[in-house]
Amino acid sequence: MSIQKKRIETILALLNAEAFYTRSIRNKIRAEFNQVIEVEHITPARRKNILKILHSTRALDSTLKSFLDHYGIRNGKHALGQYLIQLAYHNDHRIGKISNNERAQFQNSIVNHRNTHLHQADSYPSNDSEVSQIICEMETLLSRVLTL
Amino acid sequence: MALQIPASVRSKYIVVEQPDHPSTFDGPDLLISDKKGLLACFFVRTSERNNHRSFFGRVINALIAYPPETVMVLLAEDTRPFQQISADYPLNFFSKVVGTKDLFKPNLLFKEKDSSRKIKDLKEVQHKVFNTQSKVLMNNLSYIQDKGKFNAKLGKFDLGHKTRYFDPLIQKDVSVRANIFHFKGTQVGLKLLHRNASDLKELRPYFEFGANFDFQVDRGVPYIKSISKKILNVDNIPKTKFDPYKPIRVASLFGWYLANADSLEEIHRRINNLNQ
After folding, report:
1. What is the spatial distance between Cα A105 and Cα A94, in angstroms, rounded to a whole number?
2. Cα–Cα distance between B16 and B55 in angstroms, integer?
3. Quick one: CA dihedral B57, B58, B61, B62, positive or negative?
4. How far is CA B138 from each of CA B77, B107, B131, B144, B250, rounded to the nearest angstrom?
5. What is the pLDDT of residues A22-42, one digit of tens each?
6. Phi and psi of A39, rounded to 5°?
7. SS3 A59
8. Taking CB atoms and an 8 Å cutoff, what residues of chain B touch A140?
9. Chain B contacts of A14, Cβ < 8 Å?
């Protein structure tokens, strides 16, 4: 199994045991992660890279939304930056929180980088390494949320 | 150990051999997961039988990084793979010790739920550790940005004696194998990274040191007072191809601040910067 597939299978195994990871979102999240692998051979590279970020983003956003809704702490927020704030400052004693340092770290490493490419016309990641960095930070955030 | 997982288990559960977690340098040998829970299974590898700190380093890393409800299981046909360590040790790290046949019935193992007190303690440790990781990581990324290009030709300098510490598993003071020195109240590691080797594997002894030095496991919880500050002097920015930040992320988890110092004065400056 390639390293990328091994990472995705690990994340899916972690998610599988979670109460918020219901049947209704399970197939959708898996489908998005599979797309990250399946677009590997698309050319040119900048098209492949923007698609990888798009599919990873959709997996991350949907998972976090489901998590926050399960605990009733989304408070109507819709954007990833706002989800991070909810994860850091919610009032539900059943689950933990990320620290403000972590919130700032993920805001910088995921939200700011991702928004540049997804919202700015003709903006693409400069190379495969930058794409891998953003995607792996998303996976890190997911794995961190599952420890809360 | 080659694990023969039956097709009936693979069809019913998500099974991942040698999982790749973003925040572990190694980890469990097997994950088995379904709606009822997550099993993280370890067995003692041949290379670890003479190096128990390598085995426990990755167990401690998994205890920190995996969800607190994860059932940690030791697969052991041999109840005492480490001769120097008491036979009771597994109970301190794992929820259950099983033979490989028990893997065919993961449902029974999922029932080995831990107490709410243990999970609460584990979450508190994780919160502390990840908060520290975040601070160290931001500092490391800032250092790398300010430094620009790393100097690949580092000179040698004398940092005195190698670090020694008390190993509670064998109840003895031990000296570290890696190049880690106790210098001016700080642990300083030195590592020249080989171009043709994985940086994550090359830095493994430093991660293992961090796990065994700062954490004390009691009934499945890796308790810690604080993560000691450590300086890791390297000749190149550690990276891996697929997850470029992973070596720095894991180093930061264990409190390693990166440096690319070519003199004792530079090491001093890096230490002083941390103390401000």
Report:
1. 24
2. 19
3. negative
4. 44, 41, 11, 10, 13
5. 988 999 999 999 999 999 999
6. -85, 5
7. helix
8. 22-23, 249
9. 31, 33, 38, 66-67
Query: Within 10 Å of residue A13's Cβ, how many Cβ atoms?
Result: 22
Q: How far apart are CA A35 and CA A55, in angstroms?
A: 7
Reading the block at residue B252, the tokens are 């930061």
* Interval B56-101: pLDDT, tens: 999 999 999 999 999 999 998 766 778 788 878 888 999 988 888 8
Q: What is the pTM of this model?
A: 0.96
Question: Which residue of chain B has the CA closest to A20?
Answer: B35
Contacts of A144 in chain B (CB under 8 A): 23, 130
What mean pLDDT value characterizes chain B?
92
| Cα-based distances in Å from B211 to B59, B208, B216, B239 | 9, 5, 9, 21
d(CA B7, CA B84): 38
Does A139 contact chain B (CB < 8 Å)?
yes
Asked if B197 contacts B241 with a C-beta cutoff of 8 angstroms, the reply is no
